[in-house]
Design a protein that fits this description.
alpha/beta, 6-stranded mixed sheet, 10 strands, 237 residues, binds adenosine-5'-triphosphate
Amino acid sequence: MLKIRNLHAYYGAIEALKGVDLEVPDGKMCCIIGANGAGKTTLLKSISGMVRHSGEILWNDQDITKAGPGKVNKAGIIHVPEGRLTFPGLTVYQNLEVGTISWHGFISNKKYDKEIEEVFTLFPKLRERRDQMAWSLSGGEQQMLAIGRGLMGRPKLLMLDEPSMGLAPLIVEELFKKIVEINKLGISVLLIEQNARLALKVSDYAYILEQGQIKFHGESQALSNDPRLISAYLGSF
Ligand code: ATP
């Protein structure tokens, strides 16, 4: 379980998070909803140890507040960043291999066939494109690759930063089915999503972030019927 207490994060003099409390219970999917600049990415970066922050971040009762990205990955928290950031000049297979570095050390030998097979079973398109360069993939396939690379890191918690960004609605629908499948495998998910309706539909719990603070939180189903959210985030049903 991930437990965050009183998290503050800073970019120089800018305070991007102002006392955030958040929990991701084991096996659950939680989402963070909020407008541009609310601090969603900063929250994931704080957990991954990529921005200056204070407060308390506990992972299965272990204090990882001051852990760097390598240690956080090794503990089983894998961050799939906004914008996918796959390696364009590497093949699909090589991109997936990179994902094993967090637990396998240097890419040295082929002891990750099982993980590769799991990713290819989940995303058959990646199997078909195995030897293609990442730059030649469609946006949806690149996002699958980014998530697949994350899965290669053997996550217990997968953090996804706006996987739907820039994708057509049908592709987003397909992708979110896969995210639900991943969660059903027992992997906890912390998902950032601007499309509040979609996020509430797939997740168990939701946190609404506004200007660095949690404005509402609760079970997603209950929040999707909450009039305060409907007027501010969901439009009229
Ligand atoms: P988006 O949906 O646009 O990605 P977000 O909710 O993820 O938004 P963050 O990217 O976390 O928001 O940004 C939170 C605040 O921190 C914003 O005011 C942003 O301008 C600021 N910020 C983010 N990155 C930096 C940076 N590298 N340097 C200075 N300020 C930053």
